[in-house]
Amino acid sequence: MLLTIDVGNTHTVLGVYEGEELLHMWRVQTDAQQTSDEARVALNGLFQMANIEARQISGIALATVVPSLNRLWRTVGETLCHCPVVSVDANVVADMIDTSGYGGTPGADRLADAVAARALYGSPAIVLDLGTATNIEVIDENGRFLGGVIAPGIQTSIEGLVNRTALLPDVELADPGCAIGNSTVKAIQIGVVYGQVDAIDGMVRRIWKQLGTETPVIATGGFGYLMSSLSQTVTDVNPELTLQGLRLIYQAKTEQ
Is 0.85 surpassed by the pTM of this model? Predict the structure, then answer.
């Protein structure tokens, strides 16, 4: 079995694969102050709920956007599962996807998304990773990672609005079902939810124009289903896309 771990700023998503099949998937809060002992106990608890023994895990693929947690999760994997850990970065995927056209170092989650999108949906393709941040990844017709967009996510937007105003309440992130808010809650939902989805559709159309073609658009992340249900450009929702990318990367690295 392969354990895949995607450590985000707000949530950490873990998945256990047997071959290409995802057996279990968990989403937990990311805690940058967590100790390796605490993380080991929490992970072992997830295993026990799924009737998995740690010794059944033969490998771990790890992507994190929180640098301080990279070493922690490597330590947890090596001490609990006693198996090799592949930590994803640009060097690890250099022979899997061309990032030379990107003037910087793409995050591990963006790389995993790009690898999975190209393998599962072909090229060109666009990935919308909708979490704390809204990441848009663009793969061109030659399978190269061109870059994309990094913008505040829907949760970040509503927290910024509520935290910086005195009277606006925190509200559920849901489809308001109308374009004119007849209450403060509806008005906030329209502004945040519809504002975000319309911004995403607008950015996708700009990307299509620059590429000169329309592409598959795959949504993933914690808000993938909500936003895709309202989007006019999303063609598929794949909540395990990042984990699938990690699986593919681990497989490629261990077969060399």
Answer: yes
